């Protein structure tokens, strides 16, 4: 199926990790004809991701910034528009957890604030930076990530991701009149940086609770995101697509 993504410009955060979802999302969107603005706090990893897609003949530009840094976000958005002329798609995939296996009663407030600022406020920063451009053009597709909720040892990370859901529901209604769609994606647990520090016993327990008896992979995620941001997905907004389990 031709998803109608040729010459669309996609701004994808969280694409630096070689085992994360973002890199594969960039690759699949590039395969479908998108120009990619890839961003991550990991400069080397982001450059590698954009290098991979350029090897296939796609166009791309790499940015290194912390999603909490609004000035850096704004600068990257401006450069993307200056370079490619527009931004059609935002995939808010960036995320991180201060602690990987710490019970809530043992956490410090700086851990709470880190998780909330990166995973909720960070997505808000990027969306608010790009939305005026999408609203002016009366066209845009946004997918916000909200996985990893309810995991012991990652409670405040999960709280931030829960906040992403409620914020996205409201945002979808606010911008629908401008032909901008906002949807939420919840991936299943995977062997990404988020699960670092989780015990083998816990990971096996989660695996056993899935219907397919395996963890989610970037290859499972990327094609779904490509459809969600495509013109073929013409009606859904304020939707929550979850493949966990």
Question: How would you describe what is shown here?
Answer:
This protein is of the alpha/beta class and 245 residues long. It has a single domain, classed as 3-Layer(aba) Sandwich (Rossmann fold), CATH 3.40.50.720. Helix content is 45%, strand content 15%. The protein has seven helices and seven strands; from the N terminus they run E-H-E-H-E-H-E-H-E-H-E-H-H-E. A seven-stranded parallel β-sheet has the order 3-2-1-4-5-6-7, sandwiched between helices. Helix 1 (21-31) links the parallel strand 1 and strand 2. Helix 1 packs across helix 7 (218-228). The two termini are 26 Å apart.
CATH architecture: 3-Layer(aba) Sandwich
In helices, the fraction of residues equals 40-55%
Strand tally: 7
Main CATH class:
Alpha Beta
Structure keywords:
single chain; 245 residues; 7 helices; 15% strand
Q: How would you concisely characterize the structure shown here?
A:
By secondary structure, the chain is an alpha/beta fold. The chain has 7 helices and 7 strands, in the order E-H-E-H-E-H-E-H-E-H-E-H-H-E.
Strands, helices and their partners?
Blueprint: E1 9-13, H1 21-31, E2 35-40, H2 43-55, E3 60-64, H3 70-84, E4 89-92, H4 109-137, E5 140-145, H5 155-175, E6 180-186, H6 200-209, H7 218-228, E7 240-242
Parallel strand pairs: 1-2, 1-4, 2-3, 4-5, 5-6, 6-7
